[in-house]
Amino acid sequence: MRNLVSNKQAENDLAREVASHLTLLADDFERRGMPPEEARLAAKRAYGGVEQAKQAHRDERSLLWVEQTIQDLRYGLRTLSKSSGFTVTAVLTLALGIGASTAIFSVLYGVLIDPYPYRDANRIAMIYLNDKHGFNSTMRFLMADVQELRKARSVASAFAQQSVEMTSTDGDLPVTVQTVELSGNGFQFLDAPPILGRTFTAQEAPEGVAPPDVAVISYLFWKKHFAQAPNVLGKSLDLNHHRYIVIGVVGPRFTWGDGEVYLPLPAIAGPPRPLSTVIRLNPGVTVSQASAEISGLVRQLGHNHPDMLPPGSFDIEVKTINDGLLGEFKGTLLLLFAAVALLLLIGCVNVSILMLARGTSRQHELGLRAALGAGRLRIIRQLLTEATLLSVTGGVLGIGLAYLAIRLIVVILPDHSIPNEVVIRLNIPVLLFSAAVSIATGLAAGLAPALQFSNPRLNAILQSGDSRTTTSRRAKVRSAMMVGQIALTVLLLAGAGASMRTFLEAYTASLGFDPHNSLLILANFPEGAHTTWAARSQYVDALNEKIKATPGVTAAAEFYGGMPPMGVWNQSVDLPGAPPDASRRAGVLMVSADYFAVQRIPLLAGRVFTRAEVLRGSHLALVSEGFVKRYLSGANPIDRMVMPSDLRHTFPPAVAAPNPEQPYQVVGVVADVRNGGLHEPIEPQIYLPSTAVIFSGSSILVRTAGDPRLATHSIANAMRQVDQSQTANQTYAYEDFLSTFAWSHDRFISILFGIFSVVALGLAAIGLFSTVAYSVEQRTRDFGIRMALGATRGQVLRLTLASVAWTAGIGLLAGISLSIGLSDTFHKWTQSSMRDAGVLSLISAVFVLVSLLACYLPARRATQVDPAIALRSN
Fold first, then answer.
1. What pLDDT was estimated at residue 4?
2. I need a surface site. Which of 171, 195, 264, 668 has the fewest CB within 10 A?
């Protein structure tokens, strides 16, 4: 290593040592009678090649590969600095690909690899029930059944929980607080230590016993309500007029159940209540194995509690908490990563094409190095070192681009699509990924040029003196790379076009109602108040009337059972007098009398409910136009009877109107509205009075004269005038609700695919530009001869563009074929089709236009060649 640091001194020592050997040999020959000059020549002949001896000595005294690598790096830096245009283009190309890959990988790492701060999070799971109609929900268990669940072979541990929206009653105004009540072992199960204080334990809060009045608060709640006071421990917190003592603060990433405050699960007086249950699988147990065992257990428990299970067939499925929350969005993220991998591959191919074009002009240099003794591996290593220098520089720049891209991605990520615990950032694993990708990209981009130019045809190159000597094989390699690059670019363009079309269709879809100037309010009733059906019916009516009287409000209505256009309570429906039909299903929405006026849904026949009919829970119904067409064959539905099956049985805290098994009489028909998502067909719909079943809260829709956001404060004050403890838990302008929940997924995909496709198109244009520019440079003499023989500028221009036109055309057709072949996979995760003829035609036109622009500029140079200068050159 000393020789690496002080190389000059080592070389001087080596020179003196060689000189000493030569002197000794010369002296020996002089003693034999040779003249001094002949003795020196004989000594050199006897010693052998001086430079070869020095190199052998260097190999022995040094780490040769380290020294040669340093030489390659220095030479590569000098060479690249002399070709600033090529270097900047290649570095930016790789930076875009590496930066995009790093940004998307940071999302994947945060969402799929390290989403939770809890112990063994990949084994934490929940149990889902899928009925025969394909609808699924999380299973809820009585506390006694949780004990049985813990005994299952596949289950290591389990805890019960329930989310409760409470009201903070220790301030001037009531504030909604999202609480999560955990069984005593909940924090031990999750095993995420608090940053302040402690958490409650199973010994402190045993199941079935009234727990102590203690609370553990979230980091954000501590920051918002206690200003991060370090002395928060021991302070009191009033929730629903009950005092709790703060004993701990959990870390920033602990947001289990979106909770702000965590309380011990209370002992419930009266009938036991089903609770959400979380399990941890034993090591080595798969979710399918757990599903099979727990399915049998659930069926056994169902004999004791038949109301727990739906009628007919059903399946039990165990899912990890991440798979249960992400659903299809996991596939969307993987699809985006595949897209960004294609973008990186396009960048690699583009740099390879640039290096092939540049390598042709370096053939004389490489041939000379080979003639001086450089082996093929030595040349390959030099070229790969240059490529790696480019990619590492691009990787460093790409990390900066990734930082900016991550900020954009976090902004456009659909709300509630990933766990709140997820942190998306540039951390050590992501940076290591970026470094590995940078090196691999450099090697991949430089491999083809290195293999092509490491075995130069010395005689042809050195005798011709032309640095631009080329071969048909190399031209074929460049053409093949160009075809591949174009095909992948067209594939990304098709994905972007299809996703943008899907987003625009969703954004402009006819909803069947008017979302403008309307405010959506989600409000839970105060804890312990209005527990009977009559009390809730009167209370909701009073809230509705008070809101209507608020200045700026033109109408208001309450509703239950779903949120058009996202989805409604889908049920099987009986038609008295008609044969039973399990496939007869409809969405059920319970609404007050003014709902159709607020939503501006047209009445097509009959009438709507009156306020008095809603108040007394009359068994009346309205149906949609689609319901009449599908189930009544277009016949007059007025006075027909309908009976949604799920309304026969309700569970606390919901309360039902009297005579829940009595059918409902149809009194009117309204127009269809979107009720199953923006990409699904409109389903038949039934509307019942809002008092048919009343839950523990209300959804209120308010139409205002102006911007509904400005009316939020005055409406909240009006609600408190009815009950001081009443709060508006969540409020949305309906247009904001649609933007957040209905359009955000399609918007997210279309934005990212749009960015990827624009970058890919730019890289393809650079590739085409460099290919045509290289072709013009290679054929300058040919163009000069043609023009000297009378060829026009137009003929030369067409000749220049002809070869690249074939390459681009083949790449375009290959890309369209790929798009059609992969359309089903793309549609599975994006709801978009790449088979759409309009999309394929549009992206083809865009590609052809950009390609013409990219090729025309360098092709014009061929028409400006001076025949005399071209013929005299080379």
1. 45
2. 171
Secondary structure in 3-state letters for 319-356: EEHHHHHHCCHHHHHHHHHHHHHHHHHHHHHHHHHHHH
Burial status of residue 3 (CB atoms within 10 A of its CB: 0-12, 13-18, 19 or more) = middle
What confidence score (pLDDT) does residue 734 get?
Answer: 94
Q: How far apart are CA 110 and CA 116, in angstroms?
A: 9
Instruction: Please name which of 849, 851, 837 lies closest in space to residue 806, comparing C-alpha atoms.
Output: 851
User: Cis omega (within 30 of 0) on the bond before 653?
Assistant: yes
Query: Could you tell me if residue 683 is left (phi over 0), alpha (psi between -120 and 50 degrees) or otherwise beta?
Result: beta
Task: Give the C-alpha separation, 181 to 259, whole Å.
Answer: 9
Whole-angstrom distance, CA of residue 695 vs CA of residue 750: 38
- Regions of the chain with pLDDT less than 50: 1-5, 458-462, 465-469
Q: Say whether the peptide bond before residue 565 is cis (omega within 30 degrees of 0).
A: yes
Q: How far is CA 148 from CA 94, 143, 657, 789, in A?
A: 57, 9, 36, 95
Which are the contacts of 588, defined by CB distance < 8 A and separation ≥ 6?
Answer: 561, 562, 568, 569, 570, 571, 644, 646, 647, 685, 686, 688
Q: Residue 6 belongs to what H/E stretch?
A: none
> What is the C-alpha separation between 702 and 24, in angstroms, rounded?
108
* CA 507 from centroid of its chain's CA atoms: 20
Tokens representing 556? 């208001």
Question: What pLDDT, on the 0 to 100 scale, is given for residue 495?
Answer: 94
d(CA 487, CA 481): 10
C-alpha–C-alpha distance, residues 19 and 1, integer Å: 24
Q: Reduced to 3 states, what is the DSSP secondary structure of residue 471?
A: coil
Q: Which two tokens stand for residue 217?
A: 């608060």
H helix and E strand count, the chain: 29, 26
pLDDT in tens, 134-161: 677 888 888 888 988 999 999 999 999 9
pLDDT digits over 706-734, tens only?
Answer: 999 999 999 999 999 998 888 888 899 99
Q: Give residues with Cβ within 8 angstroms of 828, minimum separation 6.
A: 328, 331
Looking at residue 516, the DSSP 8-state letter turns out to be T
The Cα–Cα gap between 821 and 833 comes to 11
Give 275-314 as a DSSP string: EEEEEEEPTT--HHHHHHHHHHHHHHHHHH-GGGS-SS-E
- Pairs from 607-615 (Cβ < 8 Å, separation ≥ 24): 607/667, 607/668, 608/667, 608/668, 608/670, 609/667, 609/689, 611/541, 613/689, 614/541, 614/689, 614/690, 614/691, 615/537, 615/538, 615/541, 615/691
Amino acid, res. 247: I
Task: Report the candidate in 185, 264, 196, 195 with the shortest Cα–Cα distance to residue 234.
Answer: 196
Please report the pLDDT score of residue 444 as a whole number: 87
Q: What are phi and psi of 328, to 5 degrees?
A: -75, -15
What is the CA 53 to chain-centroid distance, rounded? Answer: 61
With H, G, I as helix, E, B as strand and everything else as coil, classify residue 747: helix
Q: What share of the chain is helix, strand, coil (3-state, %, to 5)?
A: 55, 15, 30
SS (H, E, C) 714-734: HHHHHHHHHCCCCCCCEEEEH
At 258 the pLDDT is: 92
Q: Whose CA is closest to 485, among 284, 764, 225? A: 764
Structure tokens, 348: 């690699």
Calpha distance 630→632 (Å, rounded): 6
**Could you give the CA distance from residue 62 to residue 51 in angstroms, rounded to a whole number?**
16
Whether residue 339 contacts residue 753, with contact meaning beta carbons closer than 8 Å, is answered with yes
Which residue do the tokens 């109408």 mark?
Answer: 555
| 158 close to 517: Cβ distance less than 8 angstroms | no
**Burial class for 47, CB neighbours closer than 10 Å (0-12, 13-18, 19+):** middle
